[in-house]
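Entry 12.
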Amino acid sequence: MKLLSIGELLMRLTVPDNLRFTQAEQFRLDIGGSEANVAMTLSQLGWSSRILSALPDNDLGDRISRELSRYQVDIGHIARVGDRVGIYFLEEGNSLRSSRIIYDRAHSAINELTVEDIDWDSVFEGVSHVHWSAITPALSQNAADVCLEAVDRASNLGITVSCDLHFRKNLWAYGKEPIEIISPLLEKSSVVLGDPSTIQALTGIEMKSRLLGAIDRVEQLTPDYRKLMERFANIRCVSMLLRTIHSANHHALKAVMVTRDHEYESSSIDVDSMKERIGGGDAYMAGLLHGLEHYEDRQKSLEFALTLSALKHTILGDYFRGSLQDVEQAMNTNQQGKIIR
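Predicted 3D structure (tokens):
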């Protein structure tokens, strides 16, 4: 499988040692971005991965490119335009104190990238799957146009398209409503990750399950997810990572998936000494794509995705670091956390 992932590349600056922003004297640097996290994870699972993005032609752009290259992600279609790398700052929560994020993404390089800048035939050479997230078309009209062009071309070529429906209200600042931009993209997408509140905000479709105090069973989501599939005929499955938060460091994870004729629900994994929440959803997205591609049993696909996400919660940084064997071993063992000799 060869993945084309479309999205902004980011630098993350984290206050170390669980200190607060107001205490910060230094920051830890990490590289990420939702779509890049998926690409780097799938590369480690044996896929070929390519990223379509933009970076400034300076040392910071080089630093991010080297990070992607470490994981064999094809960086040949990262345009060198603009002057800024998108940045976000993270204050890590602890116990009852929640984590906090501050974005500094205005005027970043990806907003300078246009459809005309891209050699589309070269971008799609050998590609068998395209992935986008709803963060990218929220950034600017240019970013939305690039995303739509890629999805339209993928559809015309018969290439499978997946999406992760994030909603960041403050990013939608260029005069367009989400439903206007997201709907044409969903019409060409077949594998969708999203929670009810996000789906309603981006599509305008009423999701009754968003009013529930807690969602812990697939039956609670099935009617809403089927409603989404009725509106967008190309969607063949909708999935969600369910999260029960006991504290900032202790989450219980479960996965659900609804297709046009079946519902699936995973077992639960308790992550009681979590190292990192950021990137857990991206790891789940990558795991779901890999599972659906490699397992005939969709239940096993779901368990694989959940296990990969749970492992990511034990690893610092934006993206999963490990191997296919690591995930399979954790998925199949009866004794989690034992020493592997």
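Annotation: The domain at 1-113 is CATH 3.40.1190.20 (UDP-N-acetylmuramoyl-L-alanine:D-glutamate ligase). The chain has a mean pLDDT of 95.
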